[in-house]
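Hi R.,

Here's the chain you asked about this morning:
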Amino acid sequence: MGTDELVAVLEKVDLFHDLRLRVLRQIAEAGREERFEAGDVVIAEGEEVSGFRSFSQRGVEMHVVLTGTALASVRGQQHAELRPGEYFGELSLIDGLPRSAEVRAGERGLSTFAISKWTFADLLDEHPEVALPMLRVMVARLRATEAAADR
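And here is the predicted structure, written out as tokens:
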């Protein structure tokens, strides 16, 4: 997928849709596409995100689903099916804590746009205005989760 196509995908992602085109282009150029076969583990629950792993080629990343689906589970219970335009792995990039869920490629496989931990950190350093829209999205998710738990 070319840079322009990636920018078009990223601008629809709630974490990124308020960003300027220049910043979206920078993100698109800094990340990379990854492909996973059906059932492949993309991230493992409890996986550490510090130490040597954070400097490996696949390092610690967040992923935006481009094609296919991903299945997220927590403690063995399926939690969500992620579709194109949705993302996962962002929490560990922010807080550095182990992964809170396992995410596997769906039955038809999965392609993602991956953004590494250091690319994400550089983005926030260079463009601190990115943090506020991201915080709004995460707070909205937290409130929705709390409201669902109260039901």
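One quick note: The longest strand covers residues 102-116.

Cheers,
M.
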